[in-house]
């Protein structure tokens, strides 16, 4: 039996308010480094207030897909009470207010109707409608989507970003992390010594080299790939192996955005 661990964050309290990235070689995302400020402008920090007392902590990543909508993982929705969440866009250092951030409350949560809380069955995707729009202040950007049903070739290099653990059992980084990560095509990822039958065609696998991976806190964040002449978000961080996050032949698994575009558009265009 394969044990899965969802990449939900550790509970680290974030101060009152709090941006973009800087290339320093440190082991992060796992196997990554500090991102350059104002680079991955569609990246979101999804934050949660457990006790409704204004003390938010980084829970998951997310992606700006519309001025009013954020995309994240369904397993990041630990409460359907929208007023317990906020998103921070233009974020870079979780513990510093740098003037690039926008703090926006969540108005509505829409979880994919096929989500069963079983990661192996997929559909690990959710949208959040915001109470006010993301404003173009020069530090944010609406993500581009891939072509409908597009699948990436084996070994294609993409990038994972987030504030997840820098090592299993380690600490959450202050600054946004980025790492190059190679796609593992479905015919490989679905082999028995990889993820087997729980690697679905509605997912993207990337990593599995024992060096680079997502980890707790990266859930819901984007897999960004340069395709069709633009940066496009091809995946939403979903799951990885129990124990150490960066295991050989156990790549990080993402919800494949191109598989869910009809559903996404049906929600975003309904308002």
TrEMBL record:
It comes from Channa striata. The lineage of its organism: Eukaryota, Metazoa, Chordata, Craniata, Vertebrata. The keyword Iron does not apply. Pfam families: Trypsin. This is Peptidase S1 domain-containing protein. GO terms for cellular component: extracellular space. Residues 1-18 form the signal peptide. Residues 29-269 form the Peptidase S1 domain. One of its GO terms (biological process) is proteolysis.
């Amino acid at each position: 039996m394969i044990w899965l661990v969802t990449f939900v964050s550790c509970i680290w309290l974030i101060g009152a308010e709090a941006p973009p990235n800087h290339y320093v070689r440190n082991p992060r995302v796992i196997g990554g480094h500090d991102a350059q400020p104002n680079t991955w402008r569609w990246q979101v920090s999804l934050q949660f207030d457990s006790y409704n007392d204004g003390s938010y902590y980084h829970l998951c990543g997310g992606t700006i897909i519309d001025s009013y909508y954020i995309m994240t993982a369904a397993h990041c929705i630990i409460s359907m009470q929208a007023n317990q969440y906020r998103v921070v866009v233009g974020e870079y250092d979780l513990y510093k207010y740098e003037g690039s951030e926008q703090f926006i409350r969540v108005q509505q949560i829409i979880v994919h109707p096929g989500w069963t809380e079983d990661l192996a069955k997929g559909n690990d995707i959710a949208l959040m409608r915001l109470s006010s729009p993301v404003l173009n202040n020069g530090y944010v950007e609406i993500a581009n989507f891939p072509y409908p049903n597009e699948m990436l070739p084996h070994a294609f290099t993409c990038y994972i970003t987030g504030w997840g653990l820098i090592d299993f059992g380690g600490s959450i980084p202050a600054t946004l992390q980025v790492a190059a990560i190679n796609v593992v095509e479905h015919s490989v990822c679905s082999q028995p010594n990889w993820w087997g039958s729980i690697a679905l065609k509605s997912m993207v696998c990337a990593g599995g080299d024992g060096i680079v991976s997502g980890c707790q806190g990266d859930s819901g964040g984007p897999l960004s790939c340069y395709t069709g002449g633009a940066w496009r978000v091809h995946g939403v961080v979903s799951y990885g192996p129990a124990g150490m996050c960066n295991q050989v032949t156990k790549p990080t698994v993402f919800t494949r955005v191109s598989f869910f575009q009809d559903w996404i558009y049906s929600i975003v265009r309904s308002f």
